[in-house]
Amino acid sequence: MWLSYIYTALAIKICLFLFSLSFDNNEEDAKDLFDLYIKKFHKPYIPDTPEYSERLAIFKESLRRIHSLNQNRSHPDDAWWGLNEYSDLTPEEFRQLMNKKEIERKNKNHKHVLRRSAEAINFKNITKLPKFVDWRKRGIVTPVKSQKECGACWAFSTVETLESMNALKMGELVELSVQQVIDCATGTNRGCDGGDTCEALDWMYENKVKILTEKQYPLTDKEDNCKAIRPKEGVELKFNYTCEDLKGSEEEMLKLLAFHGPLVASVDSTTWQDYLGGIIQYHCEDNNNHAVQIVGYDLTGDIPYYIVRNSWGTEFGVNGYLKIAIGKNLCGIALEVSALDVV
After folding, report:
1. How high is the pLDDT of residue 75?
2. Which of 50, 74, 237, 242 lies deepest, with the highest CB count within 10 Å?
3. Confidence band of 134 (pLDDT split at 50, 70, 90)
4. What is the pTM assigned to this prediction?
């Protein structure tokens, strides 16, 4: 049987993907694949138990959904969908796990610039963009982290961008404390139960907060009491940060990415449960419930796309990253965009 030839984690992942493309409702094959899936992702399910049967049924639904999504692919660069660590969850369970509560905003339909000083770049005179920008290649993007069951994407994405802008200024990449923001940010932010990137930036600026390093205030993946009330050292947000609705103005996002640095963006990640790679062009709404860092873009191919860093670990997507098509406000990526600098 072909299963016996799989001997590495990479081979297992490839086989899982290929099998999901050709799934034909064969019960025995689906069960064999589920057993392989359990081993690959270290799931706790024991055969011949109610939990095993329940998760197997959900797994089969995931296979059917993945098969349907992949049937709609019309271009080699289109997103492809397959099995990953979330394939044993229902879509509702996935939403509850990864997006525990919708990101709150003081005004969900706001369109404003919170802070933009005279020092901010004047983009009106920029007429030519580079075709390809990837800030990872400049060495100013830290390794992908995993938020696990802590719904603090708002803190991860904001701190990731602070790290990048600090590295641009100081010439040294230092990991900063996401945990400090999770524990200490006030306002409408709720730690591991959700928050808003713009509110996080407001909190940093209004309180002149200095963000400590990851080593000084390490990540624990859970919310706790604030252990850094008024630190005397750390990275501080500059007053010319922005929070803008750029729907219909995505060229401004490209200019910011090209000539300023990585961005923070809220998104709708509801349909990312099965994402394995390629460019997302469809199946993505704008009911924003997640936050990410945008580290670049690519205009060289048939389908221009953003390079997006997620906070679900390196097993998700392509080493923790995904690609989202430019120009359609796909996944609500242009609705709440922030650029920032550090003092």
Report:
1. 92
2. 237
3. very high
4. 0.88
SS3 letters across the chain:
CHHHHCCCHHHHHHHHHHHHHCCCCCHHHHHHHHHHHHHHCCCCCCCCCHHHHHHHHHHHHHHHHHHHHHHCCCCCCECEECCCCCCCCCHHHHHHHHCCCCCCCCCCCCCCCCCCCCCCCCHHHCCCCCCEEEHHHHCCCCCCCECCCCECHHHHHHHHHHHHHHHHHHCCCCCECHHHHHHHCCCCCCCCECCCHHHHHHHHHHCCCEECECCCCCCCCCCCCCCCCCCCCCEEECCCCCCECCCCCHHHHHHHHHHCCCEEEEECCHHHHHEEECEECCCCCCCCCEEEEEEEEECCCCCCEEEEECCECCCCCECCEEEEECCCCHHHCCCCEECCCEC
All residues at 6 or more sequence positions from 208 whose CB lies less than 8 Å from its CB, including other chains: 236
Residues serving a catalytic function are: 153, 290, 310
Mean pLDDT of 209-238: 94
Confidence of residue 25 (pLDDT cuts 50, 70, 90): low
CA pair distance 328, 1, nearest whole angstrom: 45
* CA torsion, ordered 141, 334, 338, 316, to nearest 10 deg: -30
